[in-house]
């Protein structure tokens, strides 16, 4: 009976593996495609633009700083594969005025054609203890990280539905999969992106439009360097339990998953575990992916409990050291 059950399981898994590609979306061809990247003047956004340009795409870079945009355009231009490719730069704050964002997208489409893929990379991080953060930090992060993804997506969705083709990428964060010390303002703004992506995917899937949510870990970008200047000790120690990724590596994975139409884009073994643990009712693009999540859930939850225990230990240890230091200062 055990042999029969094992044989049935193996046959079932093989069947799923064979059937899976039949229900997966058709890959998006990047040569000649128009890719819009917000936050494209530096960091992950710039690396995504370079990766798409290397594959023959036309690029529209959107960011606030015009000087940085022009510098990024020069860097990206070095990676062209034919003399027809174009990099268009538009300076705008994607989080402030929807009408302005809509006009910018229209300008880009008039020059380079309909948008085939939108990559929402615009964002920022602010860390600090909940009671130490100014209320304006919560408002600013929700505006930049959440509305800064809503507005460009809203501006491209109608044309994508009319054409029955498109990819929309939201760059969240591993801090958008679990709440961490010091990220009471940042994490909610990245969690919100997940909810938007799931709801939007259900709406647009019948139109052959696929949504991807990327959950990069700490990545060596100018934004990460700026974030580290004010990071609480607890947050820094927790962050140091994992390695810092290169933006080029993150960008390659994001582009690969977006082309394939994968809903989830994760990085490394920790990222894979987090994505399986937090999959919930998230869409899948293959039966195999769903089966893997079901099989690994219990094991990953067990491992996660050890992680959570170590994080709590770090927080308690820092609190005790801080209290001890305060007592010493008072008695000195």
UniProtKB/TrEMBL annotation:
<keyword id="KW-0746">Sphingolipid metabolism</keyword>
<dbReference type="Pfam" id="PF00106">
    <property type="entry name" value="adh_short"/>
</dbReference>
<dbReference type="GO" id="GO:0047560">
    <property type="term" value="F:3-dehydrosphinganine reductase activity"/>
</dbReference>
<comment type="pathway">
    <text>Sphingolipid metabolism.</text>
</comment>
<dbReference type="InterPro" id="IPR002347">
    <property type="entry name" value="SDR_fam"/>
</dbReference>
<comment type="pathway">
    <text>Lipid metabolism; sphingolipid metabolism.</text>
</comment>
<keyword id="KW-0560">Oxidoreductase</keyword>
<keyword id="KW-0256">Endoplasmic reticulum</keyword>
<dbReference type="GO" id="GO:0006666">
    <property type="term" value="P:3-keto-sphinganine metabolic process"/>
</dbReference>
<feature type="signal peptide">
    <location>
        <begin position="1"/>
        <end position="25"/>
    </location>
</feature>
<keyword id="KW-0521">NADP</keyword>
<dbReference type="GO" id="GO:0030148">
    <property type="term" value="P:sphingolipid biosynthetic process"/>
</dbReference>
<keyword id="KW-0443">Lipid metabolism</keyword>
<dbReference type="InterPro" id="IPR036291">
    <property type="entry name" value="NAD(P)-bd_dom_sf"/>
</dbReference>
<comment type="function">
    <text>Catalyzes the reduction of 3'-oxosphinganine (3-ketodihydrosphingosine/KDS) to sphinganine (dihydrosphingosine/DHS), the second step of de novo sphingolipid biosynthesis.</text>
</comment>
<keyword id="KW-0732">Signal</keyword>
<protein>
    <recommendedName>
        <fullName>3-ketodihydrosphingosine reductase</fullName>
        <ecNumber>1.1.1.102</ecNumber>
    </recommendedName>
</protein>
<comment type="similarity">
    <text>Belongs to the short-chain dehydrogenases/reductases (SDR) family.</text>
</comment>
<dbReference type="InterPro" id="IPR045022">
    <property type="entry name" value="KDSR-like"/>
</dbReference>
<dbReference type="GO" id="GO:0005789">
    <property type="term" value="C:endoplasmic reticulum membrane"/>
</dbReference>
């Amino acid at each position: 009976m055990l042999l029969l059950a094992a044989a049935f399981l193996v046959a079932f898994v093989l069947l799923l593996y064979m059937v899976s590609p039949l229900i997966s979306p058709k890959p998006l061809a990047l040569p000649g495609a128009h890719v819009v990247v917000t936050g494209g003047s530096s960091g992950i956004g710039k690396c995504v633009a370079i990766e798409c340009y290397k594959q023959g795409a036309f690029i529209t870079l959107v960011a606030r700083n015009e000087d940085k945009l022009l510098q990024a355009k020069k860097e990206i231009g070095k990676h062209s594969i034919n003399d027809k490719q174009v990099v268009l730069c538009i300076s705008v704050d994607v989080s402030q005025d929807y009408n302005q964002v809509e006009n910018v997208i229209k300008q880009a489409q008039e020059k380079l054609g309909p948008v085939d893929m939108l990559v929402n990379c615009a964002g920022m991080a602010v860390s600090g203890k909940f009671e130490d953060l100014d209320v304006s930090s919560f408002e600013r992060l929700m505006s930049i990280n959440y509305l800064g993804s809503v507005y460009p997506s809203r501006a491209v969705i109608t044309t994508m539905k009319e054409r029955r083709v498109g990819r929309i990428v939201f760059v969240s964060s591993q801090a958008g999969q679990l709440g961490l010390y010091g990220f009471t303002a940042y994490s909610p703004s990245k969690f919100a992106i997940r909810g938007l992506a799931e709801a939007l995917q259900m709406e647009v899937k019948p139109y052959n439009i696929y949504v991807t949510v990327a959950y990069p870990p700490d990545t060596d970008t100018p934004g990460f360097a700026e974030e580290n200047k004010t990071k609480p000790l607890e947050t820094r120690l927790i962050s140091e339990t994992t390695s810092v990724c290169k933006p080029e590596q993150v960008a390659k994975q994001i582009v690969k998953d977006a082309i394939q139409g994968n809903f989830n884009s994760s990085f490394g073994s920790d990222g894979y575990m987090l994505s399986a643990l937090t999959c919930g009712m998230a869409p899948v693009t293959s039966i195999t992916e769903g089966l893997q999540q079901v099989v690994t859930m219990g094991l990953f939850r067990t491992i996660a409990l050890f992680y959570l225990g170590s994080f709590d230990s770090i927080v308690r240890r820092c609190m005790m050291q801080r209290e001890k230091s305060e007592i010493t200062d008072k008695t000195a």
